[in-house]
Amino acid sequence: MIKNHACPLCGCLCDDIELHIKDGIVTDVVNGCLLSSGKFRSPGRMVTPIHREGNEWKETDFDTAIRMAAEMFAAAKRPLFYGWSGTSTEAMHIGLEIAEEIGAVMDNCSSECHGPTIMAVQEVGHPGCTLGQVKNRADVIVYWGCNPIAAHPRHLSRYSTYSTGAFRPEGRADRTVIVVDIRESETAKLADIFIQVKPGGDYALFNALRAIVRGERDVIPDTVAGVERSVLFKTADILLNAKFGSFFTGIGLTQSRGKYKNVRAGIELVDELNRHTKYTLTPLRGHWNVDGTNQMFSLAAGYPYAVDYSRGIVHYNPGETSGVDILAKHEADAVLIIGTDLGAHFPRETVAHLARINTIVLDPFISLSTAVAKLHIPVASVGLDAEGTAYRLDGVPIHVKKAFNSGMPSDEVILSRILDEIRKIKAEQK
């Protein structure tokens, strides 16, 4: 039995998981949500690399697979490394070394989820805090454009709405919950106030609330983005009367009309509220280490995502150097997919392009990306048979331990060997 284990599933990175293990298999997961249990107990792990010969898959050994991957990347003119949000920051650092060595583009999942949030933060700052502060202090909690019950099942019970804290001993009774969304989600059904905004109306709604907080109620029309003025006045009064309030924002803001301007408007509302009381804003990050990608990329490359090394110096221009744009324009001729599944989430045409080029997958399991890959190298899974560092959605680093030894190589080991092989190939070519 292993106690206080971190769960490598969503950005909450709950570190109170208890695992029961027998013969290298997790038999029971205590404290975890249903999604967590599924992650720890997933069957069907791959143990042997496979490569495509014509229309058939052939098994190979790790040495051969690593050499094949290195040759593909060394020969590529526009390589792309995408994903990283489902692996350790240690593996990301090695990936950045490879990208710099061969002039590749390094992009992570945030370019398709909370990348706009990062762009907003780059413009107006980030009034954030740890989840511990929310748990202990927040008496008003706002979920805007997100549905944590579905995406972060333990967020409400462990860190916010239902959790008891030093200054909120009654838990739910000490808190007012506001949900803003285009439809009544599972989280909205539990809220004290649910505000249904018209699709694409978030920017207007943020600015209307900001105007009210500034004392300019007379400029507010009868309705804003489908929300009545009286509801806005009531909501603004609740926000102003809070002792400590926390906004949690989701991809309902970042992937709808307005993009990063929505988040910027939200941060500016928080700044306005901070003239009267105390407020913070935290994006609800999805993958368990997507915040780690932004931390590591920024540390090592200077930019949080969409990092392009092809010029010999780091170039960053989301919309041009983002993975989906490079694939949509058919620029990439070799792609590494790690810590995500492009086949399941990217547009159809970009996935079709993956099938036409040298696509390599590093993943413990068969995925939809495997269907379009030339090579799939299985690896150990961080949190099960590998360990590493991850960053919780509030930026707190957590060491994710391994539960057992399987003998499978980790992402870090495979990437290190690919880097060594690439350097050997380049030395041979001189």
From TrEMBL:
The keyword Coiled coil does not apply. Transmembrane segments: none annotated. Its EC number is 1.2.7.12. Keywords: Oxidoreductase. It comes from the Archaea. The keyword Cytoplasm does not apply. One of its GO terms (molecular function) is formylmethanofuran dehydrogenase activity. Residues 45-210 form the Molybdopterin oxidoreductase domain. It holds the Pfam family Molybdopterin. It is an enzyme of class 1 (oxidoreductase). PANTHER family: FORMATE DEHYDROGENASE H, RESPIRATORY NITRATE REDUCTASE. This is Formylmethanofuran dehydrogenase subunit B. It comes from Methanocorpusculum petauri.
